[in-house]
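Working notes for the structural subgroup meeting. M.R. asked for a predicted model of this chain before we commit to crystallization trials. I am recording the input and output together here so anyone reviewing the notebook later can reproduce the run.

Input as submitted:
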Amino acid sequence: MRNLMILFPARNEADGLSVVVDMIPTAELRRLGWNHRMVLVDGHSTDGTAEEARRLGMEVFEQQGEIGKGVGLREAFDHFLASGDEALVMLDPDGTYDARDIPLLLNRMDNSDYDVVIGSRLRGKMDDGAMGRVNYVGNHILTWTAVALFRHFISDLCTGFWAFKREAIAAMHLNSIAFEIEAEMYAASCHNKLHIGEVPIHYHCRIGTAKLGSVHDGIRILRKLLVRRFFPTPVNPYIQD
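Returned structure, recorded in token form:
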């Protein structure tokens, strides 16, 4: 049996946690040879997210740096590398990503010798209303831009559903603060010549209030792509406490 960390980056996501946990296919993961543990990195929540996570049997890792998804994931990746786990799957616990798709990513990683596998919303099945038109167009533009800059095909740059081998996490050097973290993970994977694959996934309507701002965060993501195209490693990897 191999050890898998299922990582949930969260800030004020108490309402969606139980829905996501109920969808984790524990029996199938065990059949595939995975022992898993659930870890929530809590980004300074104020709605009882951490308490709800503990009630559901999750290990809670408190984000120490400033508020931001990028900061939380970077700290959580260090926590993962300090563990004995062999693989990591991360997904947002807001109900949009279907945890029943986790075996799809792991099987793709195992059977095709990929270091990184993303779950593609744009090639999968979306519920009506799960992604607004502006976000849908913006995701395509950012993805096309990323592929043009880095010359490695993916169909969904901004997905929040990823699977990594341990060596892939160790190879990536990141300095993102907020929602540009996925773009930087893609850029770092390309710079390190990691093998990146993808599978189509299900994408549902969000539980709770959306935090991603279409234009502002889109500009941050585009800027991160441009910077990392010319700087293979971050200039300033510092996390502010």
